[in-house]
Description:
The complex is a heterotrimer.
Chain A: E1 3-7, H1 9-19, E2 24-26, H2 34-46, E3 52-54, H3 59-71, E4 76-80, H4 82-87, H5 89-97, E5 103-108, H6 122-125, E6 133-136, H7 140-157, E7 161-166, E8 175-179, H8 182-188, E9 204-206, E10 215-216, E11 222-223, H9 226-255, E12 263-266, E13 273-278, H10 280-294, E14 299-304, E15 306-308, H11 312-319, E16 324-329, H12 339-348, E17 356-361, H13 371-383, E18 388-390
Parallel strand pairs in A: 2-3, 2-4, 4-5, 5-7, 6-7, 13-14, 13-16, 16-17, 17-18
Antiparallel strand pairs in A: 1-8, 6-15, 10-11, 12-14
Helix pairs in contact in A: 1-2, 1-7, 3-5, 7-9, 8-9, 10-13, 11-12
Chain B: H1 26-36, E1 43-48, H2 51-55, E2 61-62, E3 67-71, H3 76-89, E4 96-102, H4 103-108, H5 111-119, E5 124-130, H6 166-171, E6 177-181, H7 186-197, E7 202-208, H8 212-215, H9 222-232, E8 238-241, E9 244-247, H10 249-257, H11 263-267, H12 278-302
Chain C: E1 11-14, E2 28-32, H1 45-49, H2 73-77, E3 83-87
Antiparallel strand pairs in C: 2-3
Amino acid sequence: MGEIQIITANTAAALAAKLCRVQVVSAYPITPQTPVTEELAEMVESGALKAEYLTVESEHSALASVVAASQVGARVFTATSANGLLYMHEMLHWAAGSRAPIVMACVNRGVGAPWTILNDQQDTVSQRDTGWIQLYCRNSQEVLDSVIQAYRIAEQVQIPIMVCYDGFILSHTSTPVDVPSQEEVDRFLPPLEDRSGIDGQTAMNINPLILSDPRPNANGVVMPGYMEFRYRLQQDILGSLDTIKAADKEFLDIFGRNWDGSTWTYRMEDAEHAMVSMGSLASECTLAADSLREEGLKVGVVGVRVYRPFPASEIVESLSGMKTVTFFEKDVSYGYQGALAMDARAAMYDCSSRPAISSYVVGLGGRDVRPDQLAKATLECTKGATKFCWLDVRS
Amino acid sequence: MATISVKQLPKTEHILPGTRSCAGCGLMLTYRHALKALDEGKTIVAVPASCMTVLHGVYPITPVKVVCINNPFAATGAAASGIVAGLNATGKTGYTVVAFAGDGGTYDIGIQALSGALERKVDFIYVCYDNEGYMNTGTQRSSASPLGAVTSTTPILAKLQHKKDMIRIVEAHDLPYIATGSPSFPFDLFDKVKFAKNVKGSRYIEVHAPCPPGWGFPNKDLVKMGKLAIEAGIHALFEIKEGRFSLTSRSLAIAKKGRKKTVADYIKGQTRFRKISPDHLAQLQDFTDKRWNELLERHFKDNP
Amino acid sequence: MSDNLSPIRTISTPAEGEAGKTGDWRSQTPKIDHGKCSQKDSCLLCWLYCPDGVISSSFPLEIDLTYCKGCGVCAEECPRKAIEMVDDK
C-alpha cells in the first residue's frame, strides 16, 4: 500500500526514479530542476538507492552519459529544465536515434534570452521534433505516476520519454501525494531486460555511419538504410500511443488510479465550447470552465497529456462538433502561433464539423494566469470571430 | 618488461583488412598496435565523429573486432563515463573502456567533457590521436595545428598560433598515468597502452599521428615522418606515472645524445608548411626548443 | 537485438572488406624479393609498420593484395630493400 506524503513534484520525480530502481543517474543542476538531482544524490550517497550517480559538467554530458549507460544495459534517469534542455538538443536526437529507453524529468521553465527562471513550456515544446515521447503532468501525483509509467513505456517501445511538469507551480509546491510501495512498483515495472548484447565476446559498432540506401551485411542480408531506421522510429513513436494507454490501464489495476491515457476531458459530455491546454494550465482551465458553466455557457476542458506522439484522433473526437475551441498554451512557434493549437488545428482539418478555433499564448516567463482571465478569454472566443493572440501583454 | 623485438608483439590482428582509412594512415597504424595491447572481447571503445568513425566502417559492417559506441563530437568523455557507470551498475566486470578521439574532438569541441571525466576520475583510458587538424572534414585548422601550417581554414596566411599544450591541461587533472606515443614507435606505444590498461583511474595517451593527405607528404613516408617529428623534438615520447616524468624510447636516447634534426628538416617534406615565413619558422624552432628543454629538465630532475 | 529485417538500432558486425576490395585503390604494388628476406634473421618491420596489417608474420612473407592499399610503407621501411613498389598498369 502507498503512503500519503506532502511533497513537491520534484520530490515526487526523485522518489519515482528511486522506486523504479534506476541504475545510473546523471544530471547537471539548473533551476527549477535542481532539487531532483540533489535528492537523488542524497539517496545514492546514503545507500537508499543503489545506483551510479554522475555529477557531470554539463547537460550535454548528462544526456550523453545516460545514453551510453543505457547502451550497455542500465536503466537510467536524468532531469533538466530550460536552457539545460536546449543544451541537450543534439543529444536528444541522438538518444532517440539510439532507441535508448531513457526517462528524463523536464521541469518546464522559460528560455533565455533574457533570463527567466520562471515557468512556461517553451523549453520542451521546442524539442517536440527530437523523436522523444512527451508527457505533460497536471499535478505532483501525476508526475510520480508518469515517471513510473514512463519506464514501462520507454522500455517496451525503446523510445526515450520526457516527463514534463511546470517549474515552481508544481516543482516547488508541496501537495499530498500517494507514494506507492516498492512492491507495487516492482509488480508494475519488471527489471530492465538487458538488450545491450555486451557479453565479453561479441564485437559490434553501435550507431555507425550509415548510407541512405540499404546495404547488405557480410552474410548478404540487405540491411536498412538511414531512412528506414528513421521511418521505424516514426512508426514506433506513432504506435507508442497504444502502449501509453495500455500502461495507464494496467497502472489502474495495481495502483487504483490512472491518468486517462493520452488526453483527458472535464465536463465535455454536453459541452458546446472547449478549452484545450497542457500541464498545470489545463487543470486551471477546469476552474475557468466551472465559472463559465455558472454563467450558463456549456464549456468543457480537454487536457493533452501526451503531446508526442500527438493524439490526433482523440483530440478530433473530443473537439468535433464543438461550436468553439480555445487553446491556451505557454509556448509559441515564433513567426506563427502556439504549437499545440497549430497541431490540433491541422488535425481538425478533415473533421466534418469543424469548430471555430482560437488560441492564446499565455503565462510566458512565469506571468501569472488566473482562472478569471482564462474564462474571460474563452468567453470572447465563444462570441465573435476566431483569434490568435497573446493574453495579458501589458502596455 | 619493455617490448624490444617484433617477435614479442601479439600476432593477432583486431582490425579486419579492407578498411576505409586512407593508404598510409597514421591513425590506422596507431589503432592496430593499441588494440594488440588490449583484450579484444573486453574492450569497449568510445568514438566521436572523426576519422575513427570512418575507420569503423559503414553500416552494417565494421572491420574492428571490439565493441565500439559512436558519439556526437563533443560527447566522448561523457559517453565513456556513462559506459563505465553502466557497466558497473549492471555488474559487467573486467572491461577496459577506451575513448579514441582526434585532436579536434579532444583539444577543441571535446575538451569540456574530457575535463569533466578526468576530474571525476572516471576509470578509463582516453587516447587522443593527434593529426593536427580536422582531417576527416578536409584539413581545417584545429588548436592542435602547428604554427605556420596551411589548412583549409588558414589558406593564405597559414596558422598564426602555436599548438595548444594539451598535456599540461590534462596533467592539471592529476592523473595516475599520462603518456605520449607515435605509430612510428610501435613497441613504445604498445607498452604504454598495455601499462595504461592495468592502471586504475583516468589515463591519457596522446599519439602524434602523421596524416599523409592532411600534411602533404607521400604515403610511403608515414613512419619516417613520425620518426622525424621525434628526432626534431616536435613531438616527444614520454610518460608521467603518478607525477614522475620520464622520456621513453627514442626520445630518451635523443635526450642523452642530443638532437640532430631541426624543425626545418621536419617541415621540408610537408606541403602544409609551404607558406611558412622565415620568422614563423624561427618561432616554431624556438617553441620546439623551449618545450624540449623543459621536458629534458623535467626528465633529469625526476630521473637523476 | 531484434531481427535483421526490422532492426530498430544501427549495429554493425565485423567482416573483412568493409570498404570493398581496397587493393583496387593501389597505383603501385609491393613485390617481395624472397631472396633478400629470409626467415632466419628477418626483421618483420614490414609487418610491424603496415598500417593495414595485410602482411603476414609467417614465412615466406605474403602480402594480401586483395586489401593492400599500396601505400609503400613496407618498401620504404625494409632495411634490405627486399620490397619494391611496381607501377600497376
